[in-house]
Amino acid sequence: MISPLVAVTGASGAVGGRVAARLVRTGVPVRLLGREPSRLPRLPGAAAAPPAAYGDGESMRRALEGAHTLFLVSAHESPGRVLEHTTAVDAALAAGVERIVYVSFLGAAPDATFTFARDHWHTEAHIRMTGVRHTFLRDSWYLAAIPAMTGSDGVLRGPGGEGRVSAVSHEDIADAASAVLLDEGTGHDGVTYDLTGPEAFTLAEAAGELSRRTGRVIHYVPETREEAYTSRAHYGAPEWEVAGWVTSYEAIAAGELETVSDAVPLLTGHPARSLATYLRENPDSYRHLLPDS
C-alpha cells in the first residue's frame, strides 16, 4: 500500500528541512515546496514542486495537487503574514488536501503579548473554520535562539524580567511533527500540542548555563521596553519587526512562555532536550562566545 503524499513547506529551513529528511527515511512520498526550488534540499525520494509562494494562491494550488497532507511551516514574519497563510490554506483545500499540520507558537492568542503569536492564532482560527482535518504544533522559543541572541560581548539583553521560557530544540520539534505526520489515523485530528523543552528557565539561568559551557562569564541584562527599542535601533529594521523582537521577551516576562508540556516525549518516545543538552550537542551555536573567538 502506497502512503499518502505529504507536502512539506519551509523545506529549506530548520524545521521543514528536518521534517522532510525524517519522512523520506521512512519511505513516505514527499513533495518539497518553496519559492525558490533551487534552495530546497536534495533528498532521495522527495520531489520538488514548481515555485510556490504562500500569497500566490494559484501557484500553491498547482504545487499541492495530489497531496494528501500539508505540513505548513509559518511564513517569514511580515505585516501580511496572516493573509499569506490563509491564502495557502485555501489553495490547499482547492487542491484537494485533506489534512493540515500547522506549526504555530506557544500561547497563540488574539491578545498575546508577543505580536507574532497573534498571527498564529488568526491562522489557526482560519484553519478551524474550513473544517479540514488539522493538528496544531505550538512550539516555544527555540533553544538555538538563546546563544544566537547573546552578543559576542557576552551579554544577553532584553525585557524578559524574571520570567521563564520553556525553550525547545528544532530536533525535538521535527521529531514530534514527523510522528504526527506519519500517523495516518485520526487520533491527532483537532489536537493542539505545546512543544516545549523539559523545563522553563529564566534568562539569567540561561546565561549561567552559557557561562558553564563557554568558560567565560555571560550576563543577562534585563531591559525596559524603551531600552530594548533603543538597543535594537541600529539594525534599521521596520517598526513592526522590532516590536516582534521586543515583545517576544515581554511575553517571557508576562509568564506566557513558561508552560512545560510532555508532548515531545509523548509523541517521540524520548525526553525533550534541555538547554545544557542542546549546547553540548551544538558547540557551533556558541562559538562566537568562546574566549578566543
What does this entry look like structurally?
This protein has helices at 14-25, 57-64, 81-94, 115-130, 145-148, 170-182, 203-214, 225-231, 239-253, 263-268, 275-281; strands at residues 6-8, 30-32, 46-48, 69-73, 99-105, 133-139, 155-158, 164-165, 191-195, 201-202, 219-222. The longest helix has 16 residues, at 115-130. A seven-stranded parallel sheet has the order 3-2-1-4-5-6-9, with helices on both faces. Strands 7-11 form a two-stranded parallel sheet. It has a two-stranded antiparallel sheet with strand order 8-10. It has 293 residues and is α/β, with parallel strands linked by helices. It contains eleven helices and eleven strands.
Number of strands: 11
The averaged pLDDT comes out at 96
Q: Structural class, from secondary structure content?
A: alpha/beta
User: Radius of gyration, Cα only, in angstroms?
Assistant: 19 Å
What share of the residues does DSSP label as strand, in percent?
15-25%
Low-confidence stretches are none
Classify the helix fraction into a percent range: 25-40%
Q: Largest sheet, if any?
A: 7 strands, parallel
Secondary-structure element sequence?
A: EHEEHEHEHEHEEHEEHEHHHH
- The first-to-last residue Cα distance is 54 Å
Strand order of the largest sheet: 3-2-1-4-5-6-9
The shape, in one word, is globular
| Contiguous helical run count | 11
